[in-house]
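Contributing new records

If you add data, match the layout below exactly. Sequence lines come first and carry their own label; structure lines follow with theirs. Keep one chain per record. Anything else will be rejected by the validation script.
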Amino acid sequence: MTHEDVPGAPQVRVFETRTEMGATAAADVAAELRARLARQDEVRMVFAAAPSQQDMLDELAVAEGVDWSRVTAFHMDEYLGLPTGAPQRFGAWLGQALFDRVPLGAVHLIDPEGDPDGAAYAALLAAAPVDVVCLGIGENGHLAFNDPPDARLDDTRDVAVVTLDQVSRTQQVADGLFDAVDAVPTHAITLTIPRLLAAGRLFCVVPGAAKRDAVTRALHGPLTAEVPASALRRHPDCTLYLDTASAPRPETAGASR
């Protein structure tokens, strides 16, 4: 295992394998949960739904010493336009990946039919502080479904309805979630970037060569809506977990941020 630290936030950790990356991220998330539950009654956390998170979630599901009954779970985005019960829904994916595997105290899923503008979900999120967010970075640099160039780094909303760009929709096909781009919905409900950054601690898991350019630009390029993940540099307690395929090349380490 190798570690690569980039000055400032976020802390960056690079691992030889995706498996090792996921296991370490899960151990760190579990440690954070145990520490918070030792000093507060409840932990509220938000999860990303994506194959990139599978290694971490598999390990987190079997982590020891976490009182899941005092954890309330949210997720960060959901498609609009998919039928109820569609397996591609992010709530359904997270159910299989984690929510149905641990005895969570509460699970709040985005409801595209009953809450199409996300207002009720925003109210649930605002009811108390969010402690932890487990997230990833998209191939186009998105956070949740805040796609470039329309992402709003200073959005005043907690939840928004957004139009998905073509790169995001194509990534869903590459991830094996849909058979063709035309089958991927064009709109989604998403937590905004400021809502994600309002959490106390961020754990960002980003494996794979397809993410290398986005990670490089997020860490070493301008802080811009063209690379929404660059906003992670605004957070004081964010850790980025990479494998060697997604890590920026050494020559970018001294690039201007």
